[in-house]
Design goal:
Length: about 250
């Protein structure tokens, strides 16, 4: 009996460490910049979103990078991101081993959901054009999403050139010296920074008129996200999107 009990425990441990049902869960929030300056990048943004969805064959669906217990949401960055937000894309995958549902079958069902989300993202990206980029305020949407969809990890993906153009800020013209960056962060902190503690950030589509300006804008966002408690590695800030970790 003891041997049988030990075998059962070992089998359960193997199950717990191999099934996606017990993998670390995450919430992914995606922001699409739909300002005029990003018109030529929309297809890249859509391809990046599909990379996040990681749609696989039925046999491998349960091993997707967007897992069966994850949540995903997406919205757009406009000239007035807070007032235009409709959160058009939201979905929670709530597979549970204890529910008795077959993991492979649930993974198969997730394929249709992800294909639908990809179509919604396509509509979102190619039906809008904003006159500015209120990136700073759009991050308050991320704060809301991560408080609503609580998972083990929170991941923010921003598809944008990262050129803030709202209110008093215009990163195409501003000289973002360290002193100026400190001043902007102080002003934003007085308004209340979004709560992004522990959030892992990826930026794809970043660009600037010159290498010097690119580095200055990158430096601003690295410092700003640090002030918000988020984690933006400079290797995850650039033009290309390599995908998120599982």
């Amino acid at each position: 009996m003891k041997k049988i009990g030990l075998v059962c425990i070992l089998l359960l441990l193997v199950l717990l460490t191999t099934t996606s049902a017990f993998a670390e869960s995450k919430t992914v929030f995606v922001l699409f910049d739909v300002s005029r300056s990003t018109l030529g990048s929309r297809k890249e943004y859509l391809d990046g979103f599909k990379k996040i969805l990681d749609i696989r064959s039925p046999g491998e669906a349960s091993q997707s990078r967007l897992g069966l217990r994850d949540a995903i949401a997406a919205d757009v960055i406009t000239a007035n991101s807070l007032s235009t937000s409709e959160m058009p894309i939201e979905h929670e995958f709530n597979y549970s081993f204890w529910s008795g549902l077959n993991e492979t079958f649930y993974g198969y069902k997730s394929i249709a959901v992800k294909k639908h989300l990809a179509e919604e993202a396509k509509k979102l990206l190619f039906s809008q054009e904003a006159g500015g980029s209120d990136i700073l305020n759009s991050l308050r949407l991320a704060d809301r999403v991560f408080r609503r969809f609580k998972r083990d990890k929170s991941i923010l993906v921003i598809f944008s050139d990262m050129i803030e153009q709202s209110g008093p800020y215009d990163f195409e013209r501003d000289n973002l010296t360290n002193r100026r960056i400190t001043e902007i962060i102080r002003q934003e902190r007085a308004k209340g920074l979004p709560g992004l503690k522990g959030v892992i950030v990826y930026v794809a589509g970043a660009r600037a008129a010159s290498p010097t300006q690119f580095l200055k804008i990158r430096n601003f966002w690295l410092r700003y996200f640090r002030a918000c408690g988020a984690v933006l590695d400079q290797d995850n800030y650039g033009r290309a999107f390599m995908g998120i970790s599982r």
